[in-house]
From TrEMBL:
<dbReference type="InterPro" id="IPR025197">
    <property type="entry name" value="DUF4116"/>
</dbReference>
<feature type="region of interest" description="Disordered">
    <location>
        <begin position="366"/>
        <end position="389"/>
    </location>
</feature>
<feature type="domain" description="DUF4116">
    <location>
        <begin position="284"/>
        <end position="331"/>
    </location>
</feature>
<dbReference type="Pfam" id="PF13475">
    <property type="entry name" value="DUF4116"/>
</dbReference>
<protein>
    <recommendedName>
        <fullName>DUF4116 domain-containing protein</fullName>
    </recommendedName>
</protein>
<feature type="domain" description="DUF4116">
    <location>
        <begin position="237"/>
        <end position="281"/>
    </location>
</feature>
<feature type="domain" description="DUF4116">
    <location>
        <begin position="23"/>
        <end position="68"/>
    </location>
</feature>
<feature type="compositionally biased region" description="Basic and acidic residues">
    <location>
        <begin position="380"/>
        <end position="389"/>
    </location>
</feature>
<feature type="domain" description="DUF4116">
    <location>
        <begin position="145"/>
        <end position="193"/>
    </location>
</feature>
<feature type="domain" description="DUF4116">
    <location>
        <begin position="97"/>
        <end position="138"/>
    </location>
</feature>
Length: 389
């Protein structure tokens, strides 16, 4: 953010503190940061126009809207379109309304997570969710329902991960998933994973090409999940595995020797940080090397390292938004939060609530807020005759 834009942002946010009840001030502030709604007066947080302005930039601003606004279908839909997670702040009566739920699911199947328990148990609702987004299967108790699982894998082959174990042995179902997304291989039963003929049946044109190292490397560079099917020898070749892992880091699950090679994992992480998630153990020394690639490597470090203040400070100083992955205590540490904000002001969104509401943190963008020490009280000299008494 440029210095000019930053000054404008500070000035806009400061308007709400000057007068939380002035609508024109609120609208100007909310145009640049929706979560500033939390500082507006109760009357303005109940004003639909004001809330709409906040939701236009940030769906999570819904949490500070009045109860009436959280019951408003139009406002809730607007919030969900910005971020499906904003539904956690919608009125419960809306999330228990089947017609409204189906309207939400037609736009985003993952809205299923926030519906009432009664609606989650409704098969029609579950079917609507997986039809729009197969990943919704993870959120429901219908994982053994073959028809619903089939719907899910038709939309997203990788949704087979969330199917009941017996359905991962269903060759027709797994074949359907594989045709949609070859990464579904990782979630099939071991018997089907070992069935190379199944793969060749799905992709018969590969039977000849897979005899050439050059062709194999070209193919796994485009579709890393194919790695386990290229044959035992090539599936262990470091360069073939590297090409596949850069395209799809999850293939490291099936390459235990290379997954244990720190240098190899860091090499893949240079291209895709997700490779760090498959390393069996990350020492502090390796973590430092990973954080030199990007502060966002913090996401893949063990919990104890995400609570290491020195490591976290190094991460947020280069990538402010890495604050999202810091330990809870550090997200409430002013020194860490100010360092993150200095690198990227949006990091404030990941700070502990008490710091998100701290005016000094909002306005000084990571700089040390000025302190104003009260002047020393003058000490009166005792009068001469009093000293003599």
């Amino acid at each position: 953010m440029s210095e000019k834009a930053l000054k404008g942002l500070h000035a806009s946010i400061d308007l709400i503190w000057k007068d939380p009840a002035r609508k024109d001030y609120a609208l100007k502030a909310l145009a640049v940061h929706g979560r500033a709604l939390q500082f507006a007066s109760p009357e303005l947080r109940a004003d639909k126009e004001v809330v709409q302005k906040a939701l236009k930039s940030d769906g999570w601003a819904l949490q500070w809207a009045s109860q009436e606004c959280r019951k408003d279908r139009e406002l809730v839909l607007k919030a969900m379109k910005k971020d499906v997670g904003a539904l956690k702040f919608a009125a419960q009566e809306l999330l228990a309304d089947k017609d409204f739920a189906l309207e939400l699911l037609a736009l985003n199947g993952l809205a299923y997570e926030f519906l009432s328990a009664e609606l989650k148990a409704d098969r029609q609702v579950a079917k609507a969710a997986v039809t729009q987004d197969g990943r919704a299967l993870e959120l429901m108790e219908f994982q053994g329902d073959r028809e619903l699982v089939h719907k899910a894998v038709q939309q997203n082959g990788a949704a087979i991960e969330f199917a009941a174990p017996e359905l991962k042995e269903d060759k027709l179902l797994v074949t359907s998933a594989l045709k949609n997304d070859t990464s579904a291989y990782h979630w099939a039963s071991q018997e089907l994973r070992d069935d190379r003929e199944l793969w060749l049946q799905i992709c018969p044109e590969r039977s000849e090409r897979w005899r050439s190292v050059r062709q194999v490397m070209e193919e796994v560079s485009k579709e890393g999940a194919l790695l386990p099917m290229v044959g035992d020898i090539l599936a262990k070749d470091p360069e073939v595995v590297f090409r596949a892992a850069v395209q799809n880091p999850s293939v490291l699950r099936d390459a235990p020797e290379l997954r244990n090679d720190t240098e190899f994992v860091l090499r893949v992480a240079q291209q895709d940080l997700r490779a760090l998630a498959f390393a069996p153990e990350l020492s502090r020394e390796v973590a430092l090397q990973a954080l030199q690639i990007s502060g966002n490597a913090l996401e893949y470090l063990p919990q104890e390292l995400r609570e290491d203040k020195a490591l976290v400070l190094g991460a947020v100083q280069t990538t402010g938004t890495a604050l999202a992955f810091a330990g809870e205590d550090l997200r409430a540490d002013p020194e860490v939060v100010l360092a993150a904000c200095a690198a990227d002001r949006t990091a404030l969104l990941y700070a502990a609530p008490e710091l998100r509401r701290d005016k000094a943190v909002w306005l000084y963008n990571g700089a040390t807020p000025p302190s104003f020490d009260p002047p020393e009280e003058p000490v009166e000299e005792p009068k001469k005759d009093e000293e003599e008494v």
